[in-house]
Amino acid sequence: MNDLIYEVLRFVVVVSIMALVRYAIPLLKSRVKNSNLEWLYDWAVYAVKAAEQTHTESGLGTLKKSVVKEFLLRITRQYGVEITDAQLENLIESAVYAMKQEGQK
Prior knowledge:
Layout: H1 2-54, H2 61-79, H3 85-104
Helix pairs in contact: 1-2, 1-3
């Protein structure tokens, strides 16, 4: 009888560990990664607004974007956050879009 209880408990523990590894750990990693991107998004918004106020002449969109991109890359290196170029481009474009939406209100 004790052997049966031991085997059932062992099975439950093994299945629980498998479920934890399969579902909980990737979920936690994605939440941490997303919180890093949300934090970085806030910096992107600030950087885009600063670039807009600093470079007021028209036709300097490429310069503004490169300044913001370099600033965000410096922050990611400083805090050890890994980000791809595509993610960085999306953050900048989202910040620009949000700024334009604020201007329309």
